[in-house]
Specification:
Elements lengths: L1 E2 L8 E4 L4 E6 L2 E6 L5 E3 L6 E3 L3 E4 L6 E9 L7 E9 L2 E9 L5 E9 L1 E9 L4 E9 L2 E7 L6 E6 L8 E7 L6 E11 L11
Antiparallel strand pairs: 1-2, 2-7, 3-4, 4-17, 5-6, 7-16, 8-13, 8-17, 9-10, 9-16, 10-11, 11-12, 13-14, 14-15
């Protein structure tokens, strides 16, 4: 299964089949994750899942930005729209717009090096948010924005020297019966930020 968008340099190849995926335009698509789908390796070794659908591509540039407007039909706790980085089976990261246990939309990041390091960030009003992945050399940064004018830093990290890096999009519904996510205004750029900590 694959999907081609003009806003991306390569087609998206799906790892784990979604319930459905629908191209809307050259820079947007819908995806539906099935029940009890997630990517998380609990540090207590009590929970390990990597069955959520992920659409991935190989970025052709060493330094790049990948951003999207993410709209999530929140129903169940941990439902989320996700920007995803995959380096290896036990080396990956995700930036989530997620429904918290307090039933609030929230920015959440997970960095996995064998086991997942999970961190909650800001609470958000509404079900739409801009998410962004930035890579510079061997480092990554996660950002979010309300209006795409100012970007807030969520996390700055490394996954070593990624030789087979893939990036893309995912939806998840760990405790629910499925989650529908729309990714729109998708933008890929080969560039370096002037200051990744203030959003460049």
């Amino acid at each position: 299964m694959s999907i081609r968008l003009k806003s991306l340099p390569e087609e998206l190849i799906w790892r784990n089949k979604p319930v459905f995926v629908e191209k809307i335009s050259d820079d947007s698509f819908n995806i539906m994750a099935g029940p009890e789908t997630d990517w998380f390796f609990d540090p207590a070794d009590t929970y390990t899942k990597n069955n959520a659908p992920v659409g991935l591509f190989f970025p052709p540039d060493e330094n790049f930005l990948l951003s999207a407007k993410v709209t999530v039909d929140f129903v169940s706790i941990y439902d989320a729209g996700v920007m995803f980085i995959l380096v290896g089976e036990e080396s990956w990261a995700k930036l989530c717009f997620e429904y918290s246990p307090q039933k609030e939309p929230m920015v959440v990041s997970v960095v996995t090096r064998g086991k997942s390091d999970d961190s909650n960030s800001a609470s958000i009003d509404g079900n739409t948010l801009f998410l962004r992945v930035y890579k510079q050399a061997n480092t990554f940064a996660f950002h979010y924005s309300i209006d795409r004018c100012y970007w807030h830093l969520v996390r700055y990290f490394s996954l070593g020297k990624p030789s087979h890096l893939q990036v893309g999009f995912s939806a998840q519904s760990p405790t629910g019966q499925g989650c529908r996510v729309q990714f729109s205004e998708i933008d890929y750029q080969s560039r370096i930020l002037s200051d990744l900590r203030n959003g460049g």
